[in-house]
Specification:
The complex is a heterodimer of chains A (about 300) and B (about 1050).
Chain A (H helix, E strand, L loop, with lengths): L1 H20 L12 E3 L2 H6 L3 E4 L1 E17 L4 E5 L4 E6 L6 E2 L4 E7 L5 E5 L4 E6 L11 E6 L3 E8 L1 H4 L7 E6 L2 E12 L6 E8 L10 E18 L4 E3 L2 E8 L2 E6 L1 E5 L3 E6 L6 E5 L1 H8 L9
Antiparallel strand pairs in A: 1-18, 2-21, 3-11, 3-15, 4-10, 5-7, 6-9, 7-8, 9-10, 11-14, 12-13, 12-15, 13-14, 15-20, 16-17, 17-18, 19-20
Chain B lengths: L1 H10 L1 H21 L12 E7 L5 H16 L5 E9 L2 E8 L5 H14 L11 E2 L8 E9 L13 H16 L5 E7 L4 E7 L1 H6 L4 H9 L4 E9 L2 E8 L5 H5 L2 E5 L2 E4 H4 E7 L4 E5 L2 E10 L5 H16 L6 E8 H31 L2 H25 L13 H26 L4 H29 L1 H4 L3 H26 L1 H9 L10 H19 L1 H21 L13 E6 L6 H16 L4 E9 L12 E8 L12 H13 L5 E5 L1 H10 L6 E7 L2 H17 L3 E6 L5 E8 L1 H6 L4 H13 L1 E8 L2 E7 L3 H5 L1 H5 L2 E3 L5 E3 H4 E8 L3 E4 L2 E10 L4 H15 L7 E5 L1 H31 L2 H8 L1 H15 L6 H32 L2 H32 L5 H34 L8
Parallel strand pairs in B: 7-24
Antiparallel strand pairs in B: 1-3, 1-4, 2-3, 2-28, 5-14, 5-15, 6-14, 7-12, 8-9, 10-11, 13-14, 13-17, 16-18, 16-19, 17-18, 20-29, 20-30, 21-29, 22-27, 23-24, 25-26, 28-29
Helix pairs in contact in B: 1-2, 1-14, 1-17, 2-12, 2-17, 5-10, 10-11, 11-12, 11-13, 11-34, 12-13, 12-16, 12-17, 13-14, 13-16, 13-34, 14-16, 14-30, 14-33, 18-34, 18-35, 19-32, 19-35, 30-31, 31-33, 31-35, 32-33, 32-35, 33-34, 33-35, 34-35
């Protein structure tokens, strides 16, 4: 009898503690989609709210392209009648004005000399001709005008539907940003993309040809009745939405979202005009609502 | 044999006494080697294999690294199990070996296997074994910070990168030299890297690819030796220096020539000192910092090592740039010192009390001193034994030492010697030497058997503790081992040194006075005993009722596993939702720490977020380990505030902060949890299989089934998903049209976003990586990434979204494997029902309801397993032990009845233990349980002393009742004496409130309460029982 009593006791003494201590308290898995944070604290942790208002969504696409010469600004000078070059009045690097006499040719047929005038203003970039040489059928001089250049942006199929002529574009090149408009779209030969051409005044920029440029084409602009900042939107339970502040409570409002741009996103439904929503550090609210799920599984 | 030893000890008494010097010498020498720590080490024999795989996602880390490593380790000898973890940039395989495996043997085996699979692993990845350390290894932490006025050589304030550089290249190499330090782990700041960040447009313009840039850097950054030449008898070494040293030099590296024009790095890229893609950060008092942790080699003395590290750190301070401060934030020495102080105070006070009691009761100062001398000698022998068996000194192992129990044997011998010597002197005046020696021999051999017998019984009682396994085993084995060693030492001493000392020292006139205490006790005891013998039914049924009552009382006591050692500091984990980024985590952490720091009691607060350099604790960036170091209590505004009250206040303040979940614990405790890291719930159902989605589905299924079962609580599933990832899936068709293949695209993405290493820059000893990757602004802009131009082999380019689909999708945050297979765990606790029936119902229901596809299987684990095995083992071992004791008693008395009567002392003793727990408002715990175990031993000893004498008298006189009364009266002194020394020895332990006292308090409380009740009841109930049992044997016994 005593023996069993003792066994019982020892087992009781040794085992009872183990049996009942390992159960620890735990929250429910279900979570409320609401979080309460007092105002002082929310300022401290950097929660910023904004009012949902009407706004403009301006969509852009980012494209790359290179600086090309405007074909209309490059002139190659040939002799009209074959003959002997009498004189060349310009050297590489000289600036000429339209109508300047740049060379004199003696025609083989009439043996008369006739002048060649600059067809346009520009810079002499190539000179192939020297006095005494026959003109034959060759290029004598090249005049180029770099006052205007074109940038040809490549528009790949993914974006082609969005881009059309006349859209404004901001171009980043050599760390400078320039605004302009898409002049027209032309298909590129044997390539899967189309070219969106943009004319640039090169007076001050002095861009060289072939430079790569990055452009943001503003493809669309919508005035929509309600927008929220893009940073405000969080995913919770596989739905997207924002946190609406009421008093010191922040409640998740699942939204139907529409168009978006770099900063804003259109709200189709789910939010009232003028509602105060968390625009910055919304992740904290999400983290707070889901915090019971956070566990150390290492 | 015992007699011949005794004779030898007395004959060669001076030789034996000189052994004292040997014992002291070896003991003191051993003490120097004794590992001292606050708590026992409960880490299993494990080796962590970490493979750092920058840029690898969990899935890839598992497929390419974890799997081959795990497979290679399969079948290692003495392997217990493996588990693994694949996270972003890290594969960690933990190999657990059977208990008792030599760690160096294990590491050698692993090393050989790892060497064999090098060729299977992706190039450049190197699996590394974690430091040879344990859960107690993190003994010292410090932060590196700069004064706000301090300036770097370029005049700017110190950056996190610069501080990390100081940590890695000035502090760490010096600290690593401290003996006993196996690793200095760094977290926080950024590894300094040189970043070359090309702009995509410029690359395209110059027709240069990222690969070209990296190649150019690689092939223009080397020093070469070219042998030597002899000139004029002199040897000249030839070397060509081509290593890059400065940012300016990097800029001037030529990538290629375009039409004769060289394209330099400068033309296409920015070069700057950049930030690595780090996996961990550290904060202190709400500011980012760099945190270093010194880890101790297995088996070292943590107090010495921590102290040495602290001294070294103070030395290092002199070598740091002005204004940079390396400051200790956590030092194990203070905790160990406090714990050691508590233990030594307990032991010292206990020893003093024992000596006083001996003196008062024996009434002979020499005799008392001889007995007391057993205490330090036994202690020194125990220490020697501990060093030999590798038991460390800590609160647990020294927590059950009771000098009262240790001197029991010696007390009995010395008492008898004095009695006999005094008697002899009384009869024949002064004895000569030979006579005296003879008397001592006779007196000793008379009591040596019962005394050895008693000590043996107490020792045997501790045996069940050795059958505990796992964590409990590691906690309590050292305790039992120490007690047993101390008892055996005492046994050896009382067999040899004690008689020798008595023979030498007790040479003058022996006075033996009965002290006032004893005579007073006797005058009270006699009438009481007579009364109880008269009303024996009342007494027996009263005792039975008392036992019943205390059993009921025991069930109402709360319970805890092991009383938690109060480490004095607080550790807490802040858990954020999976997928939280490191920078976000740091921001949240800073606010949190400011809150904690606002408490006036808090001295420092610092934290580790994510994974340190050596992934000893691979946490995701969403988790922070926070250490709160409190000020000494005497500078608190309210010194009476308990730590728990403070904890509650902190907890309340922290819960207001959004987005954090917390787990409160203590530094060492936290580390143990991380390392042991098994399933911590009652029941864990592990689902093994191949496909993660299917595993998740099945786990959800099982979750449903288990939740419905009665008694299930906290049913939850291991989190597998939850790490959002940006996946770039190549469009194979378009890729082909552009003449690209998948690997080219992937290489480009990896280099552009993740960065590609392009060599190393040396600054003296220091080496820094050279990385090529896109500028931060471009990397962060997800929309922008879509239109990023991907270079084509023909020099053309195409936007990324043309050849790949970019989408953000959830992906596994980590993949856990066990024994070489993927697994997901569903855990549950059980409330209000017994574990056994719950588990069998769960098994049945899952079998019937859950759909387990072929190729998937289940394994049931959790604490229920340990519980089951522990209770099975204990239900076998405990009765067996009791049988052994009973057998011994039967052997000694040749009577089952007497043996059972002695046994009756046990439940009676337990009543006092339960009552004292109840009175002190303490829960049942394993510590208390061990108290009960020790108590049973003492109770048996008590009964033994009493019964043996009564029986002897009865056999001599044949008068039962008279023998009982006389015997009880004569044995009152030894019973009181053993009881008093045993319980007083524990009093300081029961009352102490110092650091670590909470671990020992329940044990001491139980023993004291139990001994009081057992003494009273042995003195009263045992005689009654004896009389009752033997009343019919009266005549036969003659």
């Amino acid at each position: 009898m005593n023996k069993y009593l003792l066994t019982l006791f020892l087992l009781l003494g040794v085992l009872a503690p183990i049996q009942s201590t390992l159960a620890d308290d735990d929250d429910d898995d279900e979570y409320e989609e609401i979080s309460r944070i007092n105002d002082e604290l929310s300022t401290k942790v950097g929660i910023v709210t904004a009012k949902a208002t009407a706004g403009t969504i301006s969509q852009t696409v980012t494209v790359y392209g290179s600086v090309t010469q405007a074909p209309e600004n490059s002139h190659e000078i040939y002799a009209r009648f074959p003959g002997i070059i009498k004189s060349v009045n310009v050297a590489i690097g000289d600036t000429v004005k339209k109508g300047d006499r740049i060379a004199t040719i003696e025609s083989n047929e009439s043996l008369k000399s006739y002048p060649i005038h600059a067809p346009a203003s520009g810079v002499i970039v190539q000179r192939y001709a020297n006095p005494g040489e026959p003109t034959q059928q060759r290029r004598l001089l090249t005049i180029t005008n770099l006052d205007t250049v074109w940038i040809e942006f490549r528009i790949y199929p993914e974006k082609q539907a969005k881009v059309s002529a006349g859209q404004p574009v901001s171009i980043t090149i050599n760390d400078k940003t320039i605004r302009s408009d898409v002049a027209h779209l032309i298909p590129a030969e044997d390539k899967p993309y189309v070219l969106a051409r943009v004319k640039l005044d090169n007076d001050e920029l002095r861009l060289s040809l072939g430079l790569l440029a990055k452009g943001k084409i503003h493809t669309n602009e919508f005035d929509v009745s309600l927008v929220v900042t893009k940073d405000a939107v969080q995913e919770l339970g596989e739905r997207l939405g924002v946190f609406v502040k009421e008093g010191e409570a922040y409640e998740f409002a699942p939204l139907v979202l529409g168009k978006s741009d770099d900063n804003f996103i259109e709200v189709v439904s789910g939010l009232e005009h003028g509602a105060e929503y968390v625009s910055e550090n919304s992740y904290l609210i999400k983290a707070d609502i889901l915090k019971s799920e956070a566990e150390d599984d290492g | 044999m015992i007699e011949s030893i005794l004779r030898l000890a007395i004959e060669r008494r001076f030789l034996f006494l000189s052994f004292i010097l040997v014992i002291v010498g070896i003991g003191v020498w051993s003490y120097q080697k004794l590992p001292i720590d606050a708590v026992p080490d409960i880490t299993n024999v494990q080796v962590q294999i970490n493979t750092s795989a920058p840029g690898y996602s969990p899935l890839e880390a598992e497929q390419r690294i974890t799997y081959p490593v795990e497979t290679a380790l399969a079948g290692l000898p003495k392997l217990s199990h493996t588990r693994s973890l694949s996270r972003y940039g890290l594969s960690q395989v933990t190999v657990v070996f059977e208990e008792g495996t030599d760690i160096y043997f294990a590491r050698n085996l692993i090393n050989a296997r790892l060497g064999a699979i090098k060729s299977v692993l992706p190039a450049g990845l190197e699996p590394e074994m974690g430091p040879i350390s344990t859960g107690l290894g993190e003994i010292f932490m410090y932060t590196v910070q700069a004064n706000s006025s301090a300036r770097m050589s370029n005049g700017e304030p110190y950056t996190a990168t610069a501080l990390r550089e100081i940590q890695d290249w000035i502090i760490k190499p010096q600290l690593a030299q401290v003996k006993g330090v196996i690793e200095v782990n760094s977290i926080g700041g950024y590894n300094k890297q040189y970043h070359v960040m090309p702009t995509p447009e410029k690359l395209l313009y110059h027709q240069v690819s990222l690969e070209d840039v990296a190649d150019a850097l690689r092939s223009n950054n080397d020093n070469r030796g070219a042998g030597y030449i002899e000139a004029n008898g002199q040897q000249l070494l030839v070397r060509s220096q081509g290593q890059l040293a400065t940012i300016e030099e990097i800029r001037q590296v030529i990538i290629k020539q375009n039409d004769g024009v060289p394209v330099k790095i400068d033309d296409v890229a920015e070069v700057a000192i950049g930030k690595e893609l780090r996996t961990g950060a550290a904060t202190r008092n709400g500011v980012e910092t760099v945190l270093g942790t010194a880890m101790m080699l297995i088996g070292e003395n943590s107090r010495t090592v921590a102290r040495d590290v602290a001294l070294k750190l103070a030395d290092i301070q002199a070598s740091l740039p002005e204004g940079v401060i390396a400051e200790a934030v956590y030092d194990r020495t203070s905790l160990v010192d406090k714990a050691v102080k508590t233990v030594s105070k307990n032991l010292l006070e206990g020893a003093l009390l024992v000596i006083v009691v001996l003196f008062v009761l024996l009434g002979n100062i020499r005799a008392a001193l001889i007995t007391a001398a057993v205490i330090p000698l036994a202690m020194l022998m125990t220490i020697t034994g501990m060093v030999k068996t590798g038991v460390s000194a800590n609160l647990m192992s020294l927590g059950a030492l009771d000098f009262g129990l240790i001197v029991d044997g010696a007390v009995i011998i010395v008492e008898n010697c004095i009695r006999r010597l005094a008697e002899a002197q009384h009869q024949s005046g002064r004895q000569d030497l030979r006579e005296r020696l003879n008397t001592v021999f006779e007196a000793t051999s008379e009591v040596i058997r019962p005394s050895l017998f008693g000590v043996a019984i107490i020792t045997i009682v501790y045996i069940p503790i050795f059958s505990l396994t796992g964590v409990e085993g590691k906690m309590f084995h050292p305790m039992a081992a120490t007690v047993v060693m101390a008892l055996i030492s005492a046994m050896i001493l009382s067999l040899t040194l004690v008689p020798a000392a008595v023979a030498v020292i007790m040479n003058g006139k022996i006075s033996e006075k009965e002290s006032v205490v004893i005579s007073a006790a006797k005058s009270v005891y006699r009438p009481l005993l007579l009364a109880t013998l008269k009303f024996r039914w009342v007494v027996v049924s009263g005792a039975a009722l008392l036992v019943a009552f205390s059993i009921w009382l025991a069930t109402t006591l709360g319970s805890e596993f092991v009383p938690q050692l109060n480490e004095g500091d607080i550790a807490l984990q802040a858990l954020r939702i999976p997928g939280t980024g490191l920078e976000q985590s740091v921001e949240m952490q800073e606010v949190l720490e400011q809150r904690i720091k606002a408490f006036p009691e808090v001295d420092k607060v610092f934290a580790r977020i994510g994974t340190p350099e050596v992934a000893t604790d691979p946490m995701p960036p969403s988790i922070a380990d926070i250490f709160v170091i409190l000020k000494p209590r005497n500078v608190w505004a309210e010194p009476s505030k308990t730590k728990n009250e403070l904890l509650e206040e902190i907890e309340e303040a922290l819960w207001q902060l959004p987005g954090n979940n917390y787990e409160f614990t203590q530094p060492i405790q936290m580390r143990f949890n991380e390392l042991i890291s098994g399933v911590r719930a009652d029941l864990g159902i592990k689902i093994f299989g191949d496909d993660l989605d299917q595993l998740t589905l099945t786990a959800k299924d099982i979750l449903q089934v288990v939740s419905k079962i009665e008694g299930a609580a906290d049913v939850r599933m291991e989190q597998v998903e939850g790490l959002p990832s940006l996946s770039v899936s190549p469009k194979r068709e378009t890729l082909g049209r552009h003449g690209l293949n998948v690997i080219q695209l992937q290489d480009w993405i990896a280099a552009a976003i993740g960065g590609e290493s392009a060599g190393v820059l040396y600054e003296g000893d220091r080496r820094f990586e050279l990385i090529v990757r896109l500028p931060e602004l471009l990397r962060r802009d997800i929309e922008g990434l879509k239109s990023l131009p991907v270079p084509l082999p023909n020099g053309d380019y195409v936007p990324l979204e043309e050849v790949a689909t970019l989408s953000i999708a959830p992906s596994p945050a980590q993949i856990s494997r066990e024994n070489g297979k993927r697994r997901v765990v569903v855990t549950a606790n059980v409330r209000g029902r017994d574990l056994g029936s719950f588990v069998s119902e769960v098994k049945k229901e899952i079998h019937e309801q859950a759909d387990i596809p072929p190729g998937y299987w289940l394994d049931y684990g959790g604490t229920f397993e340990q519980l089951e095995s522990a209770s099975q083992r204990l239900s076998l071992v405990v009765p067996l032990t009791l049988m052994v004791i009973l057998g011994l008693l039967v052997m000694a008395f040749a009577s089952l009845k007497d043996a059972l009567i002695i046994f009756s002392g046990v439940p009676l003793a337990l009543t006092g233990g339960v009552l004292s727990l109840y009175l002190r408002d303490m829960p049942l715990s394993i510590s208390a349980g061990i108290g009960f175990i020790a108590l049973s031993g003492v109770a048996v000893l008590n009964g033994l002393v009493m019964l043996a004498f009564i029986r002897q008298l009865w056999h001599e006189t044949g008068e039962l009742t008279q023998s009982i009364v006389d015997g009880a009266m004569i044995r009152l002194r030894p019973v009181l004496m053993t009881a008093l020394v045993a319980s007083l020895g524990f009093v300081p332990m029961a009352l102490n409130t110092g650091t670590g006292a909470e671990v020992q308090r329940p044990l001491a409380t139980v023993v004291i309460g139990g001994i009081i009740s057992s003494t009273i009841l042995t003195l009263l109930v045992l005689p009654v029982l004896y009389q009752w049992v033997h009343r019919r044997d009266n005549k036969v016994s003659k």
